[in-house]
Design brief:
single chain; 226 residues; alpha/beta; Rossmann fold; 4-stranded antiparallel beta sheet; binds adenosine-5'-triphosphate; binds magnesium ion
Length: 226
C-alpha cells in the first residue's frame, strides 16, 4: 500500500431538498491516517452527523468521492456497502442500540455472526476478551435493561470491536453519559489507539473530550474551517 490513509473524502457536497433546497455539506475534503484519533466539532446543525453518515457509507446521496482503505466506495451497491461497513467500520452512537431480547454477550457477537469470518466459538472468545478489556466480563449474561448507561455504552464499544474494524466511528458516543462515564469511554478509546493502533473518528460536543484527541476537525455551516 502506498499510504496509510484509512479514510479519505474528496469534495463532498450534499443537499437536502425538503422543505427547501439547502446545501448541508460544501466541498468537504479530509483524510484520516491509520492509528489517528480524530474528533469533529462544530455548532449544532453545522453538518457533523450528516458528514459522518456519508463517511460511514450509510448515506449514498452526495457529490464527491469517498475512499476507504484507498478503495473508492462511491457508486457501490447497497449490498457491497453493507459488507464493507460490517467488515471495516465499527459504530458507537449516542444511544447504544443494543437489542433488548439478547444478552450482553450475544449483542457483542452479532455483527461477527453476520460477517461469518469467525466461528461462534471464536466469536464468543473474542467477545469475552473485549468485555474483559472494558471491565464488563461479569455482565456478559445480563440483559441490556439490567445495565447502567455507562455499561451499555461499553457493550456498544465491545460490539464495535468484534470484527477488528479498520476504523471506529462515533456520533456523540458520550452524549448521553455523565462526566465520569464520559471519561471512562474516552480512556477506552485512547487505550485502543495507543495499544492497538485503532483508528477513531468521533463527533462530539464535548470540548474536553475533543482537546484530548490527536486532531480536531472544526466545521461551520457545512465546511471544514480548521
Ligand atoms: N433529513 C433532513 N432533511 C432536511 N434537513 C436536514 C435533514 N437532516 C438534517 N438536516 C439539516 O441539516 C443540517 C445539519 O444537520 P446535522 O444533523 O448534520 O447537524 P449536526 O452538526 O450533527 O448537529 P448536532 O450537533 O445538533 O447533532 C441542519 O441544519 C439540519 O436541520
Ligand atoms: Mg449530530
Amino acid at each position: 500500500m502506498e499510504n496509510n490513509k484509512v479514510l479519505e473524502a474528496v469534495g463532498l457536497s450534499k443537499y437536502f431538498y425538503d422543505p427547501v433546497k439547502f446545501q448541508v455539506l460544501k466541498e468537504i475534503s479530509m483524510s484520516i491516517n491509520h492509528g489517528e484519533f480524530v474528533s469533529i466539532v462544530g455548532k449544532s446543525g453545522c453538518g457533523k452527523s450528516t458528514l459522518l453518515y456519508l463517511l460511514s457509507t450509510m448515506d449514498t446521496d452526495y457529490d464527491g468521492e469517498i475512499f476507504i482503505h484507498n478503495e473508492l466506495v462511491t457508486g457501490k451497491t447497497d449490498k457491497e456497502l453493507a459488507l464493507i461497513r460490517n467488515e471495516k467500520i465499527g459504530f458507537v452512537f449516542q444511544f447504544h442500540y443494543l437489542l433488548a431480547e439478547y444478552n450482553v454477550l450475544k449483542n457483542v457477537m452479532l455483527p461477527g455472526m453476520k460477517l461469518g469470518k469467525f466461528t461462534n466459538q471464536e466469536l464468543e472468545h473474542r467477545a469475552m476478551e473485549h468485555l474483559k478489556t472494558l471491565d464488563m466480563q461479569d455482565q456478559a449474561l445480563k440483559m441490556p435493561n439490567q445495565l447502567s448507561g455507562g455499561q451499555k455504552q461499553r457493550v456498544a464499544i465491545a460490539r464495535a470491536l468484534i470484527n477488528d474494524p479498520l476504523i471506529i466511528m462515533g456520533d456523540e458516543p458520550t452524549g448521553n453519559l455523565d462526566k465520569k462515564n464520559s471519561d471512562l469511554v474516552f480512556d477506552i478509546f485512547k487505550k485502543l489507539t495507543q495499544e492497538k493502533n485503532q483508528t477513531l473518528l468521533v463527533v462530539t460536543h464535548d470540548t474536553d473530550f475533543a482537546e484530548r484527541t490527536n486532531r480536531i476537525i472544526t466545521m461551520e455551516d457545512g465546511s471544514i474551517i480548521s
